[in-house]
Specification:
Number of strands: 0
Structural class: mainly alpha
Strand content: under 5%
Order of helices and strands: HHHHHHH
Number of helices: 7
Helix content: 55-70%
Distance between the termini: 86 Å
Radius of gyration: 38 Å
Largest sheet: none
Length: 161
């Protein structure tokens, strides 16, 4: 039975990753695998321990650390600024002509322009007549709703007394 992290294929891939002999796409897949798969991470760590003697030494570790931390701070600041802009804009950066208020302003302006030019009057060429429905004895729908509501409220108030 193989110990955890003894898969020869994973060990070979871990060695290629450490030595930098992987293509870009394969390297990105391997990095994602290291984040997700514990067995792959174990193979990588074991191979890193085995190859420790073969790997080049870092000559000025304090300068390297300072450079990395400085780059990380710059990256964190720019990332925080970008996230703030994205949050203010609702998660997506919009151009000025993609905003809803711009579309409303254009629509309102065009409506006012067409109304003031009389374009809507020219759309209807016939005689404009106001049609008033004939009054019959039945009450309108709104009157029926009001009567039903007031009857319901009278019943409700009567049951409370």
């Amino acid at each position: 039975m193989m110990k955890h992290g003894d898969d020869p294929i994973q060990r070979e891939q871990a060695k290629a990753y450490i030595e930098g002999h992987m293509e870009e796409a394969v390297r990105e897949d391997w990095e994602q695998l290291l984040l997700e798969d514990e067995e792959s991470l174990t193979s990588y760590m074991e191979m890193l321990d085995e190859l420790q003697e073969e790997l080049p030494l870092l000559e000025n570790s304090s300068a390297f650390t300072e450079r990395v931390m400085g780059d990380w701070a710059k990256m964190a600041e720019s990332s925080a600024a970008f996230e703030q802009v994205a949050v203010e804009e609702g998660g997506r950066r919009y151009r000025w002509y993609e905003k809803t208020i711009f579309h409303y302003a254009v629509a309102a302006s065009l409506t006012l322009l067409i109304m003031s030019s009389g374009m809507f009057d020219k759309l209807h060429t016939g005689q404009m007549e106001l049609m008033i429905p004939k009054k019959d004895s039945s009450p309108s729908f709104s009157e029926q709703v009001i009567q039903a509501t007031s009857g319901w409220l009278d019943q409700l108030m009567g049951s409370r007394k």
